[in-house]
Amino acid sequence: MRPVLPESLRPLSELARNLRWSWHPETRELFQAVDPEGWRAAAGDPLRLLGAVPAARLDALAEDRRFLRRLAAASDDLHDYLTGRRWYQEQPAGLPAAVAYFSPEFGITAALPQYSGGLGILAGDHLKSASDLGVPLIGVGLLYRHGYFRQSLSREGWQQEHYPLLDPNELPLSLLREPDGTPSRIALALPGGRSLRAYVWQARVGRVPLLLLDSDVEENAPGEREVTDRLYGGGGEHRLLQEMLLGIGGVRAVRTYCRLTGHPEPEVFHTNEGHAGFLGLERIREHVEQGMEFDAALESVRAGAVFTTHTPVPAGIDRFERDLVARHFGPTGELPGIDVERVLELGLETYPGGEPNLFNMAAMGLRLAQRANGVSTLHGQVSRQMFAGLWPGFDAEEVPITSVTNGVHAPTWVAPEVLRLGARQIGAGRAEDALTVGGSQRWDAVADISDAAVWELRRTLREQLVEEVRARLRASWRERGAGSAELGWIDGVLDPDVLTIGFARRVPSYKRLTLMLRDRDRLTRLLLHPERPVQIVVAGKAHPADDSGKRLVQELVRFTDDPRVRHRVVFLPDYGMAMAQKLYPGCDVWLNNPLRPLEACGTSGMKAALNGCLNLSVLDGWWDEWFEPDFGWAIPTADGTSTDENRRDDLEAAALYDLLEERVAPRFYDRAAGGLPGRWIEMVRRTLATLGPKVLAGRMVREYVERLYGPAAEAQRALNPEAARELAAWKRRVRDAWPGVAVDHVEAVSDTTLNGTAELGSTVSLRVSVSLGTLDPADVEVQAVAGRVDPTDRLSRTTTFPLKPTGAPALDGRRLYEGPLTLDRAGPFGYTVRILPAHRLLAGCAEMGLVTLPSEATGEGAGVLLR
Predict the structure, then answer these.
(1) What are the angstrom distances between the C-alpha of 841 and each of 622, 719, 779?
(2) Taking a C-beta distance cutoff of 8 angstroms, is the pair 663, 97 a contact?
(3) Which residues pair with 616 in a beta bridge?
(4) What pTM does this model have?
(5) Could you give the CA distance from residue 106 to residue 696 in angstroms, rounded to a whole number?
(6) What does the pLDDT look like over 796-820, one tens digit per residue?
(7) Chain center to CA of 15
């Protein structure tokens, strides 16, 4: 049953159904004013609130002129936000008319629980920032009827999972409907003549529509109805069907949405991790049905595709058996007009080190996208090494995977008290722009905030966290079976004047939840130090199928249950967005101790930093990129090849204890006149001033627009059907002819080179004889590659120089290329030459994965080493 609002209160419904309320304090305050007790009971969910407000209260509000003025102002503000020009609309022409953004999970708000961890929160922040910037994004995901699991603990501390059933009609969603009012549906063909049908639900994330596909359709067979039952539930065929629905069904949902609403069709398709990779196959099918051959369709699809990998290890990628995929894309399955072998070759691990019978979703994503990125500078390096097999012959640094470091949506994660302090300092409008659009290198206005104001803010946030922890801990112990008489001790848990450390995230083994327990006696001494005590708040969920992760949770819980330390260290079950929004601001230090380099980016420390919390972390992910000792601490890593796992963990735990004992705690408790820790407060200022602008999702989305979306849209427009056919035919011709391409001879001439040495700044003239077979010089680029020589005699930090063809081919068909090579660096210096395919429509020299290098028979001149 939906509430019937008085006419004057109807704008409340619109405000409740646009999720902008989740990051707009004034709108949340308006809903709180409707019924403060009801707002708390509804856990800050406006729809639940409106469904429970007594009619008498609504009638009173309908006559309350002051409330109606506030309501009108909030409604007008939302209208201006949705229709006004924003950052994107002020950019030069040429950006995409629309971008479709696909992700298996979206963390927008706790009121729409469709996320499990960092990937989903990142996707939600991406949508919110796109909305703030005016980027015409369409989000695409699945609607999981049970969402992700809710976590509780048994009396023994073992994780227990609960899957509450979510009714879409009680969520901030609306069904996409046809003009006659019937629900829109998309359908996928399954083997044996079956179908997988899905409704399309729409959430409004500010200016951005989020489309969520739901297989709980009456016409589906029971197995098909359960495809969207749980986030990351099941495996094998169940997971494959989820990913087919997300990718193929998602494209069909976007087409339906654009047809019904008039929204511009996307020019760019962004795949957030490999789960949605099948979207590229659906786009190929669309072109094939319009008369384009497969290879040309593939080129067109690749041009407008962006693929983001979040995975630093091969084990984190979804892979399916070849026969399972073949069955679902065979003659009786999906995409019947496309040869199943062409589908398979896009995903099979046919590269060195791969398993040829496995279909790899990340490999398909990379093969279907002309542009790809990791999510931090370090993760970009890891990704280039991990996927180098897809580009044989190229060094890892030339693999075409760039990086865009993640960011977080500040209006979502910054505490209202921090926002108000910023607004008082620089004005509300400037503060909002600083947090959403970004663009400045530093927030120097932070320097003008007094020490007393900073410290008062930090203590207020810490005090709020203490209250939150006690309430959640009491609820957790009641779920574990404790009675009221057993729980008096909770009133003394944590102290708002004690150094508070936070650690909250998923619990895979590489994040090392229990590293802090390696030396329990030493940890206990830190917690109970008579002058410089420490308190720790921990939260995290292990995957339901991960018993090793559950054992880690239980190990930590048992330690926190110890009466000697339970007032100083707590574990809070059911970590989610609502908890996180209290946890990040209330901590003084955010702890992160993964195995380096397995944290692709990690954004929890970014959210903490925006609230003035200092980071204490292993140099991994974003911290490796932006760490400075002015505003945090780096935990040394024991990453030598001879260090076994136990010794590594012992060494890194000892380094953590040393930092806490000798540097972190002393600085927090070092009080000057007036009782203020001046050096600590200065670190807080530097965190806000220096890290603040960097960690914004607004910065991240602007980078995607400028570096990936814009170029992808230009490439998509350039690949009209005729150009796509031309490029596909050229690639076929080059691949067929490439075995005949060779570097035959390299000659270097320099008057200043003697006995393998040369002077800095001198020039070497290169003459290279090559065979091109049936190719023309216009089909290739001949390059000199020069750089420093490492201890293994490999080139590093290389620079490339194109060589130019001279004259007509010789009688034997060979061609001569020449060019100067400047010796521009001292020390060991080397060079080689190579031949690459070249075409105006290629995104980069490595795109085709073809390169010809000199053979050993070519002679020493092909790779001279100058020391």
Answers:
(1) 33, 8, 12
(2) no
(3) 591, 633
(4) 0.95
(5) 18
(6) 778 888 999 988 888 788 999 999 8
(7) 28
